[in-house]
Design brief:
- By secondary structure, this protein is α+β, with helices and mostly antiparallel strands.
- It has one domain (2-90).
- It contains three helices and six strands.
- It is globular and about 35 Å long.
């Protein structure tokens, strides 16, 4: 198991081998204020994705409205009735 520590917490990766881009994305995630006190685990096959790694599981302990304000500018999300979608993918 590998641990990646950022400003606001540590992600546990259930593998000793991880590609460089995925590791960069995990570190960037752990450097975000909304990740403070979050429980973050990465599956053994974690790999780089669009904006965040594929294979990420987490429990965030902050208010969802606060999280929305923090995440929206980072990943260019827009609100919709059925959740959040990237503007570049869903209009």
């Amino acid at each position: 198991m590998k641990e990646i520590t950022g400003i606001y917490g540590t992600a546990k990766v259930f593998s000793d081998v991880i590609d460089t881009r995925a590791e960069e994305q995990i570190l960037e995630l752990m450097n975000q204020p909304f990740m403070e006190n979050a429980h973050v685990r990465m599956m053994p096959d974690v790999h780089a994705g669009t904006g965040c790694t594929v294979g990420t599981t987490l429990r965030i302990l902050k208010d969802s409205v606060e999280i929305t304000k923090l995440i929206k500018p980072l990943y260019n999300f827009k609100a919709s009735e059925d959740g959040y979608h990237r503007k570049d993918r869903n209009g």
